[in-house]
Structure formats: structure tokens, C-alpha cells
Amino acid sequence: MLDFSSLLLAAALSGICLSATMFAIWCTAPKAGFVLTVACGILVLVAHVILFWRYTKEPDPLLCQIVLVLLSLGFLIICLSAMQYLGVPGYRRAFAPTLAAMAICAAVTFIGLDGVGFIITYATVTALLSAIGAMFWINGSHDRRILLVVSFLSGTCAVSFALCGMVLLGRGQWVLAAAPDNWAERLNSVVAVACMTGLGALTLSLHHLQAQIELKAETMTDPLTGLMNRRALKSLYGERSFGPFMSVVMFDLDHFKRTNDVYGHPVGDQVLCRFAAVIKKYARTGVDAFRLGGEEFAVVISRMTDERAYDLASKIGVAFGTEIVATQIGPLRSTVSGGIGFGEADGRSLDDVLAEADTALYAAKRAGRNCVISRKRTGKTEPVKPALRSA
Q1: Is the sign of the CA dihedral 31, 33, 38, 44 positive or negative?
Q2: Which tens digits make up the pLDDT trace of 280-312?
Q3: How many Å apart are CA 272 and CA 281, to the nearest integer?
Q4: What is the chain's percent helix, strand, coil content, to nearest 5?
Q5: pLDDT tens track for 177-207
Q6: 3-class secondary structure, 338
Q7: What pLDDT, on the 0 to 100 scale, is given for residue 83?
Q8: Bigger pLDDT: 369 or 85?
């Protein structure tokens, strides 16, 4: 027969170790706020376990209320950490019902119905754990295998708490005057230790996975404009075959060196950011934008005919021509040239399409700049108003 006290102390020891590990991780990576939140939630649960162990030895109505409040509060904090990690808004949806349940539990326990208090608390914890499992499964965007395990452990732990409440409810134990001790409680102690240990380990795995994703995003993102960089272009499309409804537009800001020489590099950076902002306005599903370096940009267009791709590139050029950057020597309006390379029915590589787009871009430069040219069609963007100060 399992020793109930030993199970409780094992749960407390496991929680202390997990919490200490997470605090250490948070100290080295302060941006991982959800790890700190999990650590705090586990510490609250450790306090609950220790006081519950004390309650099994010396039952006391006030201690019972504290024990039940700490149990609900600990899982509420862990639920909030899941929302924090997954970016789920509306913390009040978890706060309000849990706090209401805690208040009702305290009230019924105060008048002597401690069994009812335990039932309410177990129901609250079951709901919180179920919500955690559902959120990870529905909102998670990482490795589905990890998320499945998180959902399974949360669900298993929820079932164990639900069984504790159902046993008390089935037996009609509205008044206990002592800590509940039955097969469900013992099972719950084992399951809770195993599941919380597993969830703690998975939290560390998710932190590591998130760190990898953030690092990859940093290496794939241009820090100035926020667009993806050349490495991202190669990673996303390097192995792709460009079919007849795919194209690449190469853009190059006109006379950008002169912009830097006359207005200074800070203004040049503003111009680059303005162009990036214009591209983002036209971003949609199937349109990915990249800054290749310097004043060179690329836009990969999918699921569009040649005509529509050309029109999109022309609209970007026209929109950028209307952008004005204020400078110390007067307003600055810049222009951009573009060249388009297209995929084919038999498929083409990224390098081949880029080479075609680059050739078309130089043709646009030779044609007087401020236009978009392709091998299938030669044309300029719609006329723009005369520049106040053109770079």
C-alpha cells in the first residue's frame, strides 16, 4: 500500500527541483517570461503540497481554506503561463471564473462544508488543466508531437483531479473535518507527480524550441527593414521549382548611393524602410518580400498570372514614388526600378528566375529607371508627379 505522506513529499521535492531549474533558465534568458510564470506556479503548488501534508497531520479549518486556495491559484498561474507562451489573449477569461470559484470555496469551507470546498476546487483544477491541454493542441504552432504530449499529460492530470471530486461527490462527503484519503487521492498523487514532472520537462523543451525559432528568425530577418533576408530566400525557395504561376521581382532603389552621399546614411535608412513599408502594404498570401542587401529587394509572387504579377510590381513602384521623406535640406522623393523573372510549365530554379529578373532590372535601369520590365512585356509604371527632390 502506498504511503500517502511519502507521495506528497515526493511531489513537493519534484516541484522544488523543477521550479529551481526554471528560475535558473529564466535568469539566463529573461525574455522567456513564460518560464518564470511556470516556476512561480509550481512554487505555489509546492506550498500547497507542503501545507496539505501538514493538514493531513493536524486538520484545521483555516489551513484547509489556504490549502484549497493555493491549489487553484497554482494551476491558474500555470494556465496563464500557457496563454503567455501561446500568445492567447484575454487573461480575464481564466482569472474571473477561477477567482469566483476560489471565493465560493472559501465561503463554503468557512461554514464547515469542507468536502464541498474540495469538490469545487477539484472541479476548478480540472477545468484549468483541460483548458491548458486544449490551448496547446489548438493554438500551438510548433512540433505537434510535443504539443500532443503536453495535451495528453494535462488531460491525464485533469482526469485524476476529476476522479477525486467525483469520489467525494458520489459518497456525499460534504463535511470531512480532515484531509480526504481514498483511492482517487492516492492515484492523483502519483499521476500529479508524474504529469507535473513531465510537463516541467516539456516546458524546458518548449523553451529550447522557442529559442531555436527566435534564433532562426533573427538569422532570417533583415534588422533594418524587418523583411526576410537573402538567407531566408534561399531557405524558402532554394529547392523550389518555379512553375508558370510563380515569379520573382527584383527591385533596386534608383540613385541610392547619391541619396546617402547628399542626405546622409540615416536618411538612406529611412528611404529603405519606406520602401519596405510599401511592399508590406501589398503583401498577401503568396507574396513574400526580401531585402537582399544594400538597396536591392526581391518579391516572390505565387499563384498569379504574369499579367497580375507585373501589375503588382508596377503598383509597388508607383506607390513608392509618392513617398516623401523629410530631410534637413528639404523633402526627398525617391524612385525604384524593377525587373521580373517568371517560372515555366517545366519548372525553373530560383537561380534561373533570379538571373532573368536581374537582367530585366538592368534593362529597366538602362531604359531610364523608375519602371518595371520583364522579358515577356516591356513597360513603365504609371506616371508619377514630379519629385520635389528626387534621389
Answers
A1: positive
A2: 998 887 899 999 999 999 999 998 988 999 999
A3: 15
A4: 65, 10, 25
A5: 898 988 898 888 888 777 777 776 666 666 6
A6: strand
A7: 87
A8: 369
Task: Provide, rounded to the nearest whole percent, the portion of the chain with pLDDT above 90.
Answer: 52
In whole angstroms, what is the distance from residue 245 CA to residue 343 CA? 7
* pLDDT value for 3: 66
Burial class of residue 81, CB neighbours in 10 A (0-12, 13-18, 19+): buried
Place of cell 497531520: 57
> What is the phi/psi pair of residue 240, to 5°?
-80, 150
Q: Residues, the chain, total?
A: 391
- What is the predicted pLDDT for the residue at 379? 42
Q: State the cell numbers at 176.
A: 470531512
Q: Enumerate the H helices of 253-336 as residue ranges.
A: 256-263, 265-281, 306-321
At which residue does the C-alpha cell 520602401 appear? Answer: 275
Q: How far apart are CA 144 and CA 327, in angstroms?
A: 50
Buried b (16+ CB within 10 A) or exposed e, 240-265: bebeebbbbbbbbbbebeebbeebee
164 burial via Cβ count (<10 Å: 0-12, 13-18, 19+):
buried
Name, in order, each residue with C-beta under 8 angstroms of 308's C-beta and a sequence gap of 6 or more. none
Q: Are 185 and 164 in contact (CB under 8 A)?
A: yes
For the segment 11-29, the average pLDDT, to the nearest whole number, is 79
Residue pair 7/193 in contact (Cβ under 8 Å)? The answer is yes
Give residue 23's identity as a one-letter amino acid code. Answer: F
Question: How far is Cα 254 from Cα 95, in angstroms, rounded to an integer?
Answer: 55
Residue 219 has pLDDT above 70, yes or no: yes
C-alpha cell at 220: 532570417
* Strands (E) located in the chain: 228-229, 246-253, 287-293, 296-302, 324-325, 332-333, 336-342, 372-374, 378-379
Residue with cell 474571473: 96
Write down the pLDDT at residue 207.
Answer: 63
Classified as helix, coil or strand, 300 is strand
Residue in the structure block whose three cell numbers are 516591356:
378
pLDDT computed for residue 335 by the predictor = 94
Helix (H, G, I), strand (E, B) or coil at 115: helix
Gap between the Cα atoms of 205 and 359, Å rounded: 47
When the pLDDT of each residue in the chain is averaged and rounded to a whole number, the result is 85
Percent of the chain past pLDDT 70, that is, above it, reads 88
Q: Which cell is 383 given?
A: 506616371
